Amino acid sequence: MSRLCKWMCALIVVTFVAAQFGCASSQVIGNKSSKVYHTRDCKCVGKMKEENKVPFASTDAARKEGYRPCKVCLDEKTGAKKATEPKKAK
Ligand SMILES: [Zn+2]
Fold first, then answer.
1. What is the mean pLDDT of the chain?
2. How many domains, in total, are found in the chain?
3. Which of 6, 41, 44, 84 is 20 to 30 A (C-alpha) from 50?
């Protein structure tokens, strides 16, 4: 087995694990201070202080903890992710 092949295998494993972890670990991000939760790609999450971020496995989990859905990225009534228009290219 060549060195390059081993390196490639390691890279694939790392990528796979990272993707799995990223998807499964947190569906939404709660804000500890405002008690509002957001989708992970919401612009509010980027502005949020790292210490205020609380990951939740689902919107239900966040609501059970007393968090409210974000008006920007989530539907207020259902708390589910809004059907957003496709992202514009830069
Ligand atoms: Zn949001």
1. 84
2. 1
3. 84
C-alpha 16 – ligand 1 centre gap (Å):
27
Q: Residue 14, SS3?
A: helix
* Exposed e or buried b per residue across 56-87, where buried means at least 16 C-beta atoms within 10 angstroms of its C-beta: beebebbbeeebbbbeebbeeeebebbeeeee
From the CA of 11, how far away is ligand 1's center (Å)? 33
In a domain, 77, yes or no: yes
Calpha distance 43→73 (Å, rounded): 8
Asked if pLDDT for residue 58 goes beyond 80, the answer is yes
70 C-alpha vs ligand 1 centroid, how far in Å?
4
CA 80 – ligand 1 centroid, Å: 11
Is 0.70 surpassed by the pTM of this model? no
